[in-house]
Specification:
Distance between the termini: 90 Å
Order of helices and strands: HHH
Structural class: mainly alpha
Strand content: under 5%
Shape: rod-shaped
Mean pLDDT: 87
Number of helices: 3
Helix content: over 70%
Radius of gyration: 34 Å
């Protein structure tokens, strides 16, 4: 009976050693994957940071430039087509939006003065 217990314990120790070895292998695989993921994350953060260097001045200049281009196209369209009520409504929609933009910008300016 004692020999059976010793044999059982030997098998159990061997099993635990195999489990421990397997666990170390899994830890190594997970560590490797984690390091690779961290490297990808650092690269993505660097890309994101590089693309986020627009200053307020650059953003304002871009908005003005883009607005001028679109306004020129709108002006050309208005001169090409016959002006009707639908066109007036479209222009009023844009005027309303621009007035909203003006109000938002004035509010921002007032908050930081």
């Amino acid at each position: 009976m004692e020999a059976e217990s010793i044999e059982y314990l030997k098998k159990r120790i061997a099993s635990l050693e195999m489990d421990l070895h397997s666990s170390h292998q899994k830890q190594h695989v997970l560590l490797t994957k984690n390091l690779a993921t961290e490297k990808k994350l650092r690269n993505m953060e660097a890309i994101f940071a590089a693309n986020q260097h627009d200053t307020l001045e650059v953003l304002v200049d871009n908005f003005i430039t883009d607005g001028r281009v679109v306004l020129k196209k709108i002006s050309q369209q208005v001169h090409i087509i016959e002006f009707d009520v639908e066109n007036a409504a479209s222009l009023q929609k844009m005027i309303d939006y621009l007035q909203h933009v003006i109000a938002e910008l004035e509010s921002l300016k007032e908050n930081y003065q």
